[in-house]
Amino acid sequence: MLTPCPCTTIDTNLLGSIHVIRAALPHLRAQGHGRIVQVSTAGGQTTYPNFSYYHSSKWGIEGFCETVAREIAPFGIGVTIV
Predict the structure, then answer these.
(1) Mean pLDDT of the chain
(2) Catalytic residue among 17, 53, 54, 57
(3) Most buried one in 31, 35, 59, 80, CB count within 10 A?
């Protein structure tokens, strides 16, 4: 059974990370290289009952980072998910 959306989980784990990455990209592009390091958990690779919002946020940020990595590679910027 799903509980009401704990928006802080989505806001922190997904949207917060997206905003930080988007804010950093102009600076990394200006210097011509760089690396974004995103810390993740096993929750981005597997699932456990009763953690659906948490897993959604972690799967979401990993998908975002993998996509952004392909988009920014030509600018000398890498992405590492730890």
Answers:
(1) 90
(2) 54
(3) 59
Active-site residue flag, 17: no
Q: How confident is the model at residue 4 (pLDDT cuts 50, 70, 90)?
A: low
pLDDT at 2: 57
> Of 17, 53, 57, 58, which residue is the catalytic one?
58
Task: State yes or no: is 48 an active-site residue.
Answer: no
Indicate which residue of 40, 48, 52, 56 is catalytic.
40
C-alpha distances (whole Å) from 44 to each of 10, 47, 69, 76 are 13, 8, 17, 26
Catalytic (active site) residue 53: no
Position 62, amino acid: E
**pLDDT tens track for 30-70:** 999 999 999 988 877 788 888 888 888 899 999 999 999 99
